[in-house]
Structures are given as structure tokens and as C-alpha cells.
Design brief:
With 309 residues, the protein is mainly alpha-helical. 76% of the residues lie in helices and 0% in strands.
Length: 309
């Protein structure tokens, strides 16, 4: 290869890399613009949004109790942080679409056919996890916490710590609801099968509780309320993978059965063994006894009784 051809190939690869970097930059800018637009649209109602978020707690506070702000800037920074995180959550479809548009040209046709529905499903499941946390978990958790304290203790939760608490729950439940997507992806890439996943069910249940312990605040209620949906969603993922990849799984089973049949045929053809009849067994036994008798008899020398010449 000449020097000019080598230089041309190097410049082509460099240009391709730069074009990908420019495209990635443009898509990241679009993600930030989407987050900024949603943030500016919601910031005016930041206090109202925080009040709606705190409703599961304030609904269970004793009469006369309110939330407090320990830090000086908390009344401003906490609603600001809430609206910013909410903007990121609401812009997630745009963010994931930009990532999808960036990597889609490098995927095969069958991969695109699977990845599209999985992308949409992952967004919907993440939002479903957040909704489950807000409408199911929060009332139970806060109702329990506010009812078990001593009577002389006045409950006044800091607004910043409350926001950190609920954001951790939102993230944990949103991530936990992605279990069916993870299950389908593992089956799609051939890493495992639905039957093998079903066999690992006891380990999955234990892992769900460990997962809930790591992603939720240190209380048993939220851990259990996260572990049970993870288990149920795992079962849903196994069922969905059986349906989606039904043809491929049946084809794999047929190929496995054919291989087993071929192995059996080769063993049968290569072996001359067959069941012996009673007569054959008796004949073999008699020949074996005869050979044993012959081996045990002493050898008579030919020169016994002859005189030396």
C-alpha cells in the first residue's frame, strides 16, 4: 500500500470519527434544550409542585405540625432541585430517543425491530414505577412512620431531606420496573432462556429483596414493597420472552432433539452389542469353564519315563 493510500484511509477514518462526535454533540445539545424548556415551563409552579409531592406526608402529619427548612436557602433551592429533576424525568423520552437515533444506524434490521418497542416500554415502565411509588408506597410508608413515634415527639420533616428520600424511592422503583426489559434483553442476546430463568426463581426472589434493600431507604416496608413488584415483573418478563421469541425457542428445541437423535443413531450403528439368548449365554458359560479347566491342569513334560541315551 502506497503512502498516499495510507494517508487517505487515515483522513477518512478521522473524518468519520469527527462526524460522529459532531452528531453526538448535537444530540446532547437537543437533550439539554428539552430539559431547559420543560424546566422553564414548570419553574413558576415550583412551590405548588412541591406541595403536591409532599401531600402523602403532610396528609399524615398530626394537626398543627408542618414541614420545616433547616438551611437558609432551602425554601428556594429545594423546589428548584425538584423542578430540575422533574424536568429530566419528563424529558426522558426525548433523551432516550436521541440516544436511539445516535446508535440506530449501527444496528441490524432485526435488532431495530426489537429495540424500538423495548425503548418505548422502558419509558412507560419507568413512569409506572414512579406512579406506583407515589400512589401506593408513599401513603403506606409515611402513614406507618408518623404513627409509631412517641406521643411527646413532634414530627417536623425537613423539606430537603424529604425530597432526597422520595427521589431515592422514585429512582429505585423506576429502575425496578425495568426488570421485564432486562429479562427480554437477556433472552434476545442468547445469554439465557425462559426455562433457565424459571429454574433460578428462588435466587431471583432473594435477589429482589437484596435489590430492594440497596435501592430504598433503610426501612423494611419500602424494601418489601419494592421486592414484591420486582418478583412479579420478573415473572412477567419470563412470560413475555416466551411469547416474543416463541419461534426461535421452538427452533432451538427442534435442533437439540435432532442432535440427540443423530447421536443415538451413531451409537446404535457403531455398536454390535445385542441381547443374548439363553442358549448363547449357556454356550459362553461352558466355553469359559472349559478354558479355566485347561489353564489349571499342569503341563506334562515329553521326556518323562525316557532314559538318557
Amino acid at each position: 500500500m502506497s503512502e498516499s493510500e495510507t494517508t487517505e484511509d487515515t483522513s477518512t477514518s478521522t473524518g468519520s470519527l469527527l462526524s460522529h462526535l459532531f452528531e453526538l454533540r448535537d444530540r446532547v445539545v437537543r437533550m439539554l434544550i428539552a430539559v431547559l424548556v420543560i424546566f422553564l415551563s414548570l419553574f413558576y409552579w415550583a412551590n405548588e409542585i412541591y406541595s403536591y409531592l409532599a401531600a402523602p406526608l403532610t396528609r399524615h402529619l398530626p394537626e398543627g405540625s408542618t414541614m420545616i427548612a433547616i438551611d437558609v436557602a432551602s425554601p428556594f433551592l429545594t423546589p428548584f432541585k425538584l423542578v430540575l429533576m422533574l424536568s429530566v424525568f419528563l424529558a426522558m423520552p426525548v433523551i432516550l430517543y436521541q440516544f436511539w437515533a445516535f446508535v440506530a444506524p449501527g444496528l441490524y434490521k432485526n435488532e431495530k425491530r426489537i429495540a424500538g418497542p423495548l425503548l418505548v416500554s422502558s419509558i412507560l415502565l419507568f413512569y409506572a414505577g414512579m406512579a406506583f411509588a407515589y400512589y401506593i408506597v408513599f401513603p403506606l410508608v409515611f402513614g406507618f412512620f408518623t404513627s409509631i413515634g412517641p406521643e411527646m415527639v413532634s414530627i417536623s420533616t425537613d423539606i430537603g431531606r424529604y425530597l432526597d428520600f422520595v427521589l431515592a424511592l422514585f429512582f429505585g422503583f423506576g429502575l425496578a420496573f425495568e426488570v421485564p426489559i432486562a429479562t427480554i434483553i437477556l433472552v434476545a442476546i442468547g445469554f439465557t432462556t425462559p426455562d433457565k430463568l424459571a429454574e433460578k426463581r428462588p435466587y431471583i426472589i432473594v435477589g429482589a429483596f437484596i435489590f430492594g434493600m440497596l435501592l430504598t431507604p433503610p426501612d423494611v416496608i419500602s424494601q418489601v414493597l419494592l421486592a414484591i413488584p420486582v418478583w412479579v415483573l420478573f415473572e412477567a418478563g419470563v412470560i413475555a420472552s416466551r411469547i416474543i421469541f416463541k419461534d426461535r425457542l421452538l427452533e432451538a428445541e427442534d435442533n437439540l432433539d435432532d442432535d440427540d437423535d443423530d447421536d443415538d443413531d451413531s451409537v446404535t450403528e457403531g455398536s454390535d452389542d445385542h441381547p443374548l439368548s439363553d442358549e448363547e449365554l449357556n454356550a459362553e458359560r461352558d466355553s469359559s469353564e472349559a478354558s479355566d479347566t485347561t489353564d489349571t491342569e499342569p503341563e506334562k513334560p515329553d521326556n518323562i519315563g525316557k532314559k538318557d541315551g
